[in-house]
Structures are given as C-alpha cells and as structure tokens.
Specification:
Length: 284
C-alpha cells in the first residue's frame, strides 16, 4: 500500500508523515512547490508518477478571515484542488481521502449535535469553499472517496488555537476568549488513527471526525492553561465583540457517532486528547 500526502507543510500532513515513518510505510509527500493541487496538469502528472493506492489530501486554504477578501484563492485550493485530485485519482485508480470542515454549517441547530444528514448553510467564504470541495470530490469519485469533516484541529505547529493561546498568555496581561462559540477540539493524532482504521476497513462516504464531546473556546482555553499550570485571567466575551471579517457559526459541534458505529471504535473525549497532546509537548 502506497500513500501520497498533499500539503506536507501543514499540521495534519505532518502527523501522517510521522506515523508513516514510525511504521516504515511506503509514502511520498512532495513539497507544495512540486505538487500544486490547483494545477490540474501538474496534479495528474504527480499522481501518475507516484502511483499511490491512497491519496490523503491534507492541503487546504484555512485563513478564514482572509478568505473574505480573496475568495477566488480559497475556492482554488479548497474546491478546484480537491476536484483535480479526484480526477487524477479516478484516472489512476487511487482512493482519495479529503478533509472538510464544520464551517459548512450555520450553527443554528438547537436540538442536537450536527449529523452527516443535516442541511449545510455556510456563513463565510471559507465554509462555502470547503463545502464546494467535498461536493466536487464526491461528484467525481462517489464510493472511491472518503470525506471527513473536522473541527478545531490542533497538533504540532503554530497554526492552531493551542499554540496561539500559549503565545497570547505569554504576551498579554489578561485574555479575552469567546464563550459563545462551540465546537469539538480535534487532535491530528485522532484524525490519523480514525482515517487509517477507516481505510483498513474499506469505508467510503462522508463522515464527521472529531474528538468526542464539545466545548466553548473559553472552556477550551481554561483547560489548556490549567493543564499547563498557567495562572492567567480569562474574560469570557461574545465572539461578536471581536468584529472579525468572517462570520462564524456559534454552535458547529458535530457528532462522531456514525463513524464510531461504522468502525466499532470509541474516540477519546476532547479533554483527554488535549491533555495527552500538551503532556507530549512538554516531554518533547
């Protein structure tokens, strides 16, 4: 089994690379300068050369606010890119795994966590581009694709909430964190575990993949600082007070029950995942 990983400079791709290296698995993860998924011809040539059995698309445009000013770039990476990969996967007989986002929802559901069958209604350009991307993949590949919606992803690197919070806590006298924005923090290691398990079992289709449970940004921030032993005052505020360019769903927590039932597994709670990640960071 050979894997092709896109977006090698991102935190999710890095987690897959570490796992493959530790298990001596056959994979290639070209630099993004060599595999630009927005270029259809280059994408097809790279897939043809690598001859992978499985393509893991970890490349993404995830600058939520900046996407409001440059939607064409967001759609190029998050929609045209996945479509190019899907076409190449179809042509060269590979399975494509693609990652989408909880931002495909508008946050207005009040009766339960979001399930795969719930209506989508993204509030910002980033969410619209991610929804378009997952639809493109499924349109081209159907059952030859595996699409996972993720939320609040964290792992090694600086482009996640944990890294930013720790930077803020070191530089600021006190912190202001949204108490009315809810979702599920999701560790990259959890994503790797579930993805590889799903591939082993031949799963296909669309699933929600998060650590179990949900919390507000404020609750997450308190848990992080408490685990790190950092005594810093955090003032809970409304997310609207930040006046960010992109509107965000206030409640986008998703249920992972469909994938856990499908694979007959349990996925650790977000608190456990965050704790293990922070303990691992301290040891390293």
């Amino acid at each position: 089994m050979k894997y092709l990983v896109t977006g090698r400079n991102g935190q999710l791709a890095a987690a897959f690379i570490r796992r493959f290296e530790s298990r001596s698995l056959d994979f290639t993860a070209p630099d993004e300068s060599l595999l630009d998924i927005t270029d259809a011809a280059k994408t097809d040539a790279c897939v043809a050369s690598a001859r992978p059995d499985i393509i893991l698309n970890c490349a993404a445009y995830n600058l939520v606010d900046k996407a409001e000013q440059e939607p064409d770039r967001a759609f190029s990476v998050n929609d045209a890119g996945p479509r190019n990969l899907a076409v190449a996967a179809h042509r060269h007989d590979a399975v494509l795994v693609h990652y989408s986002s909880d931002y495909v929802f508008d946050g207005r559901k009040e009766t339960a966590l979001y399930g795969e069958g719930d209506a989508t209604n993204p509030l910002n350009q980033y969410g619209r581009s991610k929804l378009a991307g997952e639809q493109s993949v499924r349109e081209v590949l159907g059952d030859r694709s595996l699409v996972f919606r993720l939320s609040w992803v964290f792992g090694e690197g600086k482009q996640n909430f944990i890294a930013k919070l720790l930077e803020w806590s070191a530089a600021q006298e006190y912190l202001r964190i949204a108490c009315d924005e809810f979702s599920a923090p999701t560790w990259t290691e959890t994503v790797v575990d579930v993805t590889l398990n799903a591939l082993d079992q031949g799963a296909s289709g669309l699933y929600h993949l998060t650590n179990s449970g949900y919390c507000s940004r404020y609750e997450w921030a308190k848990a992080i600082l408490r685990r790190r032993g950092i005594n810093k005052f955090i003032r809970p505020v409304s997310m609207d007070s930040f006046q960010l360019p992109a509107k965000r769903p206030k409640f986008s927590a998703m249920s992972n029950q469909t994938i856990t039932n499908k694979l007959d597994i349990s996925i650790p709670a977000w608190e456990e995942a965050v704790g293990r990640f922070l303990d691992q960071e301290i040891r390293s």
